[in-house]
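To close the section, here is one more complete example, presented without commentary so you can practise reading it yourself. The ligand is NDP.
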Amino acid sequence: MTARTTRVVRLVRRPAGEPVPGDFALAEHPLPPLGEGQLLVRNLYMSVDPSMRGRLESTEKHYTHNFTPGSPLDGRALGIVEESRCASVPPGRYVRHQLGWREHAVLDAAATDGAGRIDPELAPLPTWLGLLGQTGFTAYVGLTRIAEARPGDTVLVSAAAGAVGSAAGQFARLLGAERVVGTAGGPDKCAALVEEFGYDAAADYRAEPVREALARLAPDGIDVYFDNVGGAQLAAALHALRPGGRVALCGMMSQFGGERPSADLNQLIQAVLKRLTLRGFIVRDHEDLRPEFEHRVAGWLRSGEVLARETVVDGLENAAGALLSLLGGGNVGKMLVRLAP
Ligand code: NDP
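Output:
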């Protein structure tokens, strides 16, 4: 099938404060003819990511381009090749790429990954965007290379019921952590942390200051903090870290597009006093680890030692709502939109 146009989600205007549904609209968008080396891909699932929030703004600096009002959004997606002008990626192959937020995409085969590796027999397609995709990879890189998690560590993970967090907590345990503590918003998520994702303890940051919760749940301190939220939780973790502790700075959910709680930065003196290592990272700088990651996590999936959980919303028309829901904490595990049956 050669679709001449495809449905996309476009940005209508930059949000004035928190984003609202009216900032986004569905539109028909032309599809270019296939050039040499290109593919027509029907998107099956698309990833909904916190980084979208900063990309809606004009001033936030991010690791990829910001969106322009009137233009389609983009982001990670998984689809099936319907037409191909690249001999090594024939029709029927599953590929991942960056042209989500639309039903069909025309793109260079060289700009896709996973062709020939995405195996629905090994794991369902959504898992290839979640635990076996960029979010699981982010957790793996952050723990193994950035925080250098070691057997016997006590590990703290924030946004622990989300996509990266639920992977990080499970991987920490499998890498030999002695105790894994997670923070999340609300009692249901905290229950899921312990009952589904195997955390030893969970703290509801909305119900209790994290610093107080950590005094109870990790009284001897923590060795590693996998930080997804920044702000007050980072400050609490700085207090709980043992001398020589390591922090993987993965993301700053508490600060996307919002206020910068500068008072929390006063706690940075803890990093000096305790000789802490705080290291930020961008996952795409660590592609050399991907084969090791896929091999190990595929093994853990096969043996049933890890749980892949997704929150799946149906239809492109509900994609903007899925983003707003994610920003408000409406997901457990990876937030995805299913674009085709
Ligand atoms: P999640 O699935 O974790 O979804 C985001 C979660 O953040 C929400 O479910 C919500 O959970 C929590 N949250 C929202 N607002 C706040 C707040 N004010 N304070 C504390 N928690 C909040 O998203 P991802 O797993 O996709 O991403 C997690 C983090 O990893 C993000 O910071 C993201 O930017 C980062 N990231 C970094 C990458 C890198 O290369 N460095 C790559 C990919 C992701 P709750 O209900 O518990 O509040």
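Once you have examined the tokens, check your reading against these statements. The chain is about 25% helix and 25% strand. Residues 49-51, 135, 138, 159, 161-165, 184-185, 189, 228-229, 250-254, 281-283, 326, 329, 331, 335 surround NDP (CB under 6 Å).
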